[in-house]
UniProtKB/TrEMBL annotation, chains A, B:
Keyword Repressor: no
Domain of life: Bacteria
Family: Belongs to the class-II pyridoxal-phosphate-dependent aminotransferase family. Histidinol-phosphate aminotransferase subfamily.
Domain Aminotransferase class I/classII large residue range list: 39-361
Pathway, per record: Amino-acid biosynthesis
Essential cofactor(s): pyridoxal 5'-phosphate
Name of the protein this chain belongs to: Pyridoxal phosphate-dependent aminotransferase
Family matches, as InterPro entries: Aminotrans_II_pyridoxalP_BS (IPR001917), Aminotransferase_I/II_large (IPR004839), HistidinolP_aminotransfase (IPR050106), PyrdxlP-dep_Trfase (IPR015424), PyrdxlP-dep_Trfase_major (IPR015421), PyrdxlP-dep_Trfase_small (IPR015422)
Signal peptide: none
MF annotations from Gene Ontology: pyridoxal phosphate binding; transaminase activity
Keyword match Transferase: yes
SUPFAM superfamilies: PLP-dependent transferases
Key words, A-Z: Aminotransferase, Pyridoxal phosphate, Transferase
């Protein structure tokens, strides 16, 4: 008889060894060469503030020290920035890390969770990882559907309901009023996860007023997108103090990279640079729209640093275009669920990268049309 | 009736909001000024290789990109370094992060886990965080007791049994032969967590041969100690491929800081610098021993980058000495459990820091003796 030493929990045993996304490096290794334009992961190719780069560079010398487990300086700077109290802010290892902690706090096997069909896979990954049962509602006109999400959450007695505003992967968004109505309609026993990873790119009037007394919502923000620091792994959550404190029961207190803490602090402090990036990204969105129209395609309006390009046919065609782009060294991704998967998703990159995309797209379309 | 929106799991609800360690920054904030010598967290004050610092500094520019979720380059470099396959290596957010993942994979409420009374609190934190029931055995002659640990694991039907070799907080160690006998005695249904965070400081013959086919043990290594990169959060585990793969079910795939990945790769590549640090740390240990003896105290032999100084009386006295040292701006910690808490634990820091310790210790002892 073979002996067993690592006895996984029944839940862990039942999970697939999976990954929400295949990284571009993995694709590069299997292709044998690098991408010419990295436009698939909604990374901010304009990069972080030079002040943040300098701060990280300087912090490298101090990396023999653990980071401050309280993230004191960053939480206080964020509190000042948002005009709220530090007790309402959790700093964690990216929104991904915080979603994992949130799942662990709230979800046990059989608990119900609601999201949109085709929304953020990493949220779904964590829900499944704690045994949650995911209910989904479809997008409506390429937007997440707040009413349907709330109705479904009430129907199944969900512990969590998730929405991203602006949305990923479509880039569409709702007004602050619509989202506030959604918050107001959250059923008793349910917490709304409002993922605002892309909020800095969105027009004024997209984010509801921060109300730290509201127990119905936890809001997720990040330094990965507008601040251009995806690789640093710094996200934060805003919620009622009682919920924020609960994370201290389970989080990896010494989990934050000290260099990343320093970088985020400096990035936050450089709001003029942020404004410049937001402007550059808006320019890149317009450029992607122009490139699409030059090729007879249309785009969806976007309040993010990416644009969904409607390839005008079915998912198979969009996938063929995507495969051709990748073969032409342009890293892009596409939505997972129909009918959104008629689109491909292009990050709002630098002009030189969009030149490469502009040159590759007609070739990719021609090849896909064969 | 007050409505409830965030329904914590019964387990999460039952956990205290706690932290395994209070960070030195927290103490500095409450004191109102900084420590003069940071000798409490076994950080490597000699710092990382200049090549690692340069690599992190350079990587700051690329931080707009997510890190490679497969940690491909680092896993392959570690595999070459250890002469094993990359499939047997998990890279994670420090040993702390990996211990959290391991707990999640194996522990559900009521599961039994065994460790030494007074051993690594963060391991205990994660076990409790998943509802595990911790059984402990005492140290024997200031060493962890492999036989007692195994006997206890068998007695309670433990899923995990933990030992650190060399040990923290005492710095003592067992030979590879003793640890191999422990591995050979692991009961069916139990996994040995062999925490080798300090192994690079230990004499030859402390680490058993790596046997990646052995399903009875998972070994933890880190860049936080000898490699001097505590703030970067890079640890790794070595185990049978099947167990390593299981982490892919639940880990935060995009959780690693890209800068830290680059730093670890460069640090690993600079083995001459590592050898130099190990030598410097040995010198610092000897110096701490001399300082202790100059003050009529003795030390425990250590195979780590810290030294347990036996204050020669009870825990209350050791605590008084520690408090006095902290009042004199020397950050130190002490073991938690009797009789080990008759000692204080001093990190093997730079000569300038040990000068400060040497000057503070007689004053602290005099004040504590009052």
């Amino acid at each position: 008889m073979t002996k067993t030493y690592a006895r996984l929990t029944p839940l862990a045993d039942s999970l697939p060894a999976t990954v929400p996304f295949v990284g571009p490096e993995t694709q590069e290794r299997s292709r044998g060469h690098a991408f010419a334009a990295r436009l698939g992961a909604n990374e901010n190719t304009f990069g972080p503030s030079p002040k943040a780069i300098a701060a990280m560079s300087n912090a490298a010398t101090d990396v023999w020290m653990y980071g401050d487990p309280e993230n004191f300086d960053l939480r206080h700077a964020l509190a000042a920035h948002h005009g709220i109290a530090p007790e309402n802010i959790l700093v964690g290892e990216g929104i991904d890390g915080i979603l994992g902690y949130l799942g662990r706090l709230l979800i046990e096997p059989g608990d119900k969770v609601v999201t949109s069909q085709g929304a953020y896979p990493t949220f779904n990954y964590h829900v499944a990882g704690f045994g949650g049962v995911l209910g989904t509602v479809p997008y409506i006109d390429d937007h997440e559907d707040p009413n349907a999400l709330i109705a479904k959450a009430a129907e199944v007695g969900a512990k969590l309901v998730y929405i991203a505003n602006p949305d990923n992967p479509m880039g569409t968004w709702h007004s602050a009023d619509t989202i506030q109505r959604m918050i107001d309609a959250v059923p008793d026993g349910c917490l709304l996860v409002l993922d605002e990873a892309y909020i800095e790119f969105a027009p004024e009037g997209t984010a509801p007023t921060l109300n730290i007394e509201d127990p119905r919502v936890i809001r997720m923000r990040t330094f990965s997108k507008a601040y251009g620091m995806a690789g640093a792994r710094v996200g934060y959550a805003i919620a009622q103090a009682e919920l924020i404190t609960a994370f201290n029961k389970i989080r990896n207190h010494f989990g934050m990279c000290r260099i990343s803490q320093a970088g985020a602090l400096a990035a936050l402090d450089d709001q003029p640079y942020l404004a410049e990036v937001v402007q550059n990204v808006a320019g890149a969105r317009a450029r992607i729209d122009q490139i699409a129209r030059d090729n007879g395609l249309s785009t969806l309006p976007s309040a993010t640093n990416f644009v969904a390009v409607d390839c005008g046919r079915d998912a198979g065609f969009a996938k063929a275009v995507l495969d051709q782009l990748i073969a032409l060294d342009v890293f892009v991704r596409m939505p997972f669920a129909p009918p959104q998967n008629r689109c491909i998703r292009i990050s709002a990159g630098r002009p030189d990268e969009l030149d490469i995309f502009a040159s590759a797209l007609p070739k990719a379309l021609a090849a896909a049309r064969v």
